[in-house]
Amino acid sequence: MNNNLTEGNILKKLVILALPIMGTSLIQMAYNLTDMIWVGVLGSRAVTAIGTAGFFTWLAFAFIIVPKIGAEVGVAQSVGRKNADETKNYIRHSIQMNVVLAALYGGTIMVFRKQLIGFFNIAGDDIIAMAASYLFIISMGMIFFFLPPVLTAIFNGHGDSRTPFVINTIGLTVNIVLDPLLILGVGPFPQMGVAGAAVATIFAQFVVTMVFIFVIRKKTDFFVAVNFLQKPDWQHIGRIVRFGIPVALQSGAFTVIAMIIARILSGWGPTPIAVQSVGSQIESISWMTAGGFQTALSAFVGQNYGAKKWERIYKGYFTAIGIIAVIGIITSCLLIFLPGPIFSIFIREQNVIQDGMIYLRILGVSQLFMCIEITTAGAFNGLGKTIPPSIVGIALNALRIPGALLLSAALGLNGVWWSISLSSILKGIILTSWFIIFLSRHQEIRGRRLIGFSKLEVETER
Q1: Dist CA 461 CA 442 (whole Å)
Q2: Which of 39-53, 242-256, 437-451 is the least confident region?
Q3: How many CB atoms are closer than 10 A to CB 350?
Q4: Which of 121, 189, 357, 393 is the most exposed place for a label (fewest CB within 10 A)?
């Protein structure tokens, strides 16, 4: 397979790269969806427990993202420059940083899990106990939660998105098999409930990590002559931090803001938290798909930026935006017109389904804008300019808190959902406009009229 993204048909290169990454993203989403489907059999209180604990697995990504983006951008740009030594330096330092952060975060979660769950002020000792148990098990295997995303980023940076897709599919299969066995207790397996979902997830990630190591050792030369015990070079650590920290801050801020929103929701009882937990997993179909295009575009832009091919960056961006816009519109239609059948897959309690239908309809309005915002962030990331998406993301996500308080005073619980949806619309408009203005001012693109998607001329090279 030709992993060089600086030559050839742009549409074909993007699609071939993006499809496996989208598949990998959807697999990550499927882990959570599978857990939610089987935990939903236990009732909405179990869903509330896993949804509450899940905020801290979300928060983990704020730490994972630093070495992940460092590997993704650093490797892609080094490959584009054909600098093998720099490529290996980014691989070594991203893995070293990832392992240290996994140990620190896992230890913190293990020690303070009860206090962390207590932040949400949830009524119900059974919910708190289930959530704390879930966090304890996840913290025990945190290293296997941290490593696969960074290993995936290294392969993506090389332009090989198919291998991580296959490996993560193996992990999903393991998780799908174990979930009903451990959550419900089938045959010789004990009924572990919410704890069973945690065990299934961590064991599946352990399998993914082991398969990655096997493939790296037997099938690639990516890690040849890379000594992970070598003392870190702080110059490379600094570059990785510079690439990753704005995105990490955005991710962390997003999770913290979501936790504050969940605390606001607890004023209506545990049901809205269950609705948001299930609804956000359903909504993740679009944002994980967009996340796949974000990663593909980041690798594409990174390699072409390293090769100084701005014309391909320009055309690649609008090609990706055109594709993701179609996906966003389709998702909006599904959430707005078919919320009941979709939500009832996860929870059977009618009062929760009714609230869930309202949630999906309101969030469905913003799916197109959310998709183009996420994809545009990938274009910025590929250039190593991770600050603009972070500014837009943090500022607009923060507005959800006062927005939720103000709108809920007039609209009740629905006001909280509208604050989330409206902020996503604004993020999409502002970040996309920012990148288009940036492109129009670049010296190699200046003077070119920014045409619409329907008139986009897709480059073909021999």
Answers
A1: 23
A2: 437-451
A3: 9
A4: 121
Contact criterion met (CB below 8 Å) for 52 and 265: no
In a domain, 4, yes or no: no
- Supply the pLDDT for residue 459: 43
- Which whole number is the average pLDDT over 389-398? 92
Residue recorded with tokens 């993701």 = 324
**Beta-carbon count within 10 A of 355 CB:** 24
Cα–Cα distance measured from residue 391 to residue 394, given in angstroms and rounded to the nearest whole number: 5
Token pair listed for 430: 């502002």
82, two tokens: 């054909």
Question: Which residues constitute the domain of residue 431?
Answer: 10-452
Q: Is residue 292 part of a domain?
A: yes
Contact of 17 with 173, CB cutoff 8 Å: no
Give the whole-angstrom CA distance, residue 318 versus residue 324: 10
DSSP 29-67: HHHHHHHHHHHHTT-HHHHHHHHHHHHHHHHHHHHHHHH
In a domain, 119, yes or no: yes
Split at pLDDT 50, 70, 90, the class of 326 is: very high
* Other CB atoms within 10 Å distance of the CB of residue 243: 27
The pair of structure tokens assigned to 93 is: 């330092």
Number of domains forming the structure of the chain: 1
Tokens 């600094």, located at residue: 238
Q: List C-alpha distances in Å: 4 to 15, 81, 105, 299, 306.
A: 14, 11, 36, 10, 12
Structure tokens at 289: 């798909």
> With 0-12 CB in 10 A as exposed, 13-18 as middle and 19+ as buried, what is 2?
exposed
Lowest mean pLDDT among 146-155, 208-217, 251-260: 251-260
Residue 458 within any structural domain of the chain: no
